[in-house]
Specification:
By secondary structure, the chain is mostly helical. It has helices spanning about 25-45, 60-65, 75-85, 90-170, and strands at about 15, 20.
Amino acid sequence: MKPSRFIPRKGLKQYIPDQGWVTPASTTANVDSLRVTGETSLATDQPMDAPGELPSAPASAREGSLGEGLRDPLLGELLEQLHTPPADELTQHWSRIAAEVSELNHGMREQKRLRAELAAIDARLLKLRSTILNDLQSVQRIADQQLVQARLRSEVSTLAQNRLATRLHHPPE
């Protein structure tokens, strides 16, 4: 192929049929570095972590050839843009919304936990009320039995007193 007549500028791309869309200044350097890292990756039998991520390339070479593994610099540029957070007003709103949603989720989990704890406390209180009512009924039964026994003793003693009084007033003949 004949050399490019484009002036290298950031974002300016040239289409070369064997290589795809490339930046004119770094066409041969990126392809050669990609071939070397690809051969070393195959030689060590270690898979690459992610598409476009070179395992042992320095940061400047990785930034320059992000996405070159796919032979498409536009895809590499897209991946690079995804890794750099945009700083516009819409992003700030979305990050604030995400933080609020996270806080809402945390609050709802806490509310659910507290409701479960409250339900457990309510069940325990209901059981205690039932136990107290059963104990009070037992006490009432025992008190009623003691009252019946006291009445019987009172009636027996009254009856015995009356019999003794009648015998003492009227001697047996």
